[in-house]
Amino acid sequence: MLASFLGARVHMSGERYSFFSLLRETLRGHTGWKPVWRKAAPQKDYDIVIVGGGGHGLATAYYLARRYGLTKIAVVEKGWIGGGNVGRNTTIVRSNYLLPGNVPFYEQSMKLWEGLEQDINYNAMVSQRGVLNLFHNDAQRNAYIRRGNAMRLNGVDAELLNREAVRAKLPFLDFENARFPIQGGLLQRRGGTVRHDAVAWGYARAADRLGVDIIENCEVKGIRVHDGRVTGLETTRGFVGARKIGLACAGNSSRVAAMAGLRLPIESHVLQAFVSEGLKPFIDCVATFGAGHFYVSQSDKGGLVFGGDIDGYNSYAQRGNLPVVEDVLEGGMALMPRIGRVRLLRQWGGIMDMSMDGSPIIDRTSVGGLYLNAGWCYGGFKATPASGLCFAHLLARDEPHDVATAYRLDRFGKGAVIDEKGMGAQPNLH
């Protein structure tokens, strides 16, 4: 234990971060820090190749190496690590779900978040500041009572706050709004925020220390299939052989799966997020508007991080449209009028896999050796650790993890959908 604390190498390559390593580098002008992960070149073949160097792909590679002892693994990313959806979200983590198919999975993810920084030896800025879902009428209150009871029956913390308790916590909200009066809220104190890009960097570093090859600027151009089984990937950096391939490429899942002849029950939509100028601390939790799709928290730099609904049209552009911007800002003004005095600093868009029931897919495909991790809709970031663990379990053992048994691909044909809130794509509207 002492050796580990002092920063020694324990069954791993690369230096362990510690107080003493920070002190040492401070004394020598921070000249001794090494790259966080290697710039690996693709090898001829691997046991497993993960397509997608985002949070889910990197977490999968890490748990494959850490928990299942597999090291001949590569992660291929078409751009740079952290350049996709994992760096384009609103940093919220929570496990306040209702339905049996989702509750155990997201609670497993919450537990992994709580120990993540110690596990990967990286500061991901996990902040369990609480997630407060506001309600504005009797019907919403009853729905949140039901949700809170379901959470507590499953061992998840939940607390129903009345109007005055919410006012004591967030006094600057518009409680007297004639259309959307705030009547209370459902609070999960263990929820909160995590720095999104630090999650990618931390998992990348941890996986690299365990021998995983992280290959950036390596776009997949084709999937080679022989006798109904994958043999490898055609990439911009040459052919990469693989016994198994795991797809964890977010909104591009449909395009990559089509290379193997698959058509997935998902649509790709843009989801925008926004950051304001830096402000003094005044929001000490994540707050969501119950009368519209608006959620807000405050980052460590002081900026308000907020977002809303997806763009209605299908797109791979990572760039949203102005009507959604207007809708999000209207929701913010209805909930918190003082936000109108704040300047918007920047915005971005991520490409969401919208499944037909709003819940994810972690399963084998009809092509031998090809596995799918997709359809995360709005909930991809909060699921990062559990998604990686469950996908790693599937890849290593060829059977679903106990908490992910409901996420099979065949549920759409069987009618066993997990419609948490109807937040998936709506084909009837297109």
Notes on the structure:
It is a single chain. With about 425 residues, the chain is of the alpha/beta class. The chain has three domains: about 1-35, no CATH class; about 40-120 and about 195-265 and about 360-430, 3-Layer(bba) Sandwich (FAD/NAD(P)-binding domain), CATH 3.50.50; about 130-195 and about 270-355, 2-Layer Sandwich (D-Amino Acid Oxidase, Chain A, domain 2), CATH 3.30.9.10. Helix content is about 25%, strand content about 25%. It has helices at about 1-5, 20-25, 55-65, 105-115, 115-120, 140-155, 165-170, 195-210, 255-260, 320-335, 385-395, 410-415, and strands spanning about 45-50, 75, 90-95, 130-135, 160, 185-190, 190-195, 215, 220-225, 230-235, 240-245, 265-280, 285-290, 295-300, 305-315, 345-355, 360-365, 370-375. The strands form three sheets. Strands 1, 2, 8, 9, 10, 11, 17 and 18 form an eight-stranded mixed β-sheet that branches. A hairpin with a 2-residue loop joins strand 10 (about 230-235) and strand 11.
Question: Could you provide a short overview of the structure?
Answer:
The chain has helices spanning 2-5, 19-27, 55-66, 103-114, 116-120, 138-153, 163-169, 196-209, 253-258, 322-335, 384-397, 411-414, and strands at 45-51, 73-76, 92-93, 131-135, 159-162, 184-188, 192-193, 213-215, 220-226, 229-235, 238-247, 266-278, 286-289, 294-298, 303-314, 344-355, 361-364, 370-374.
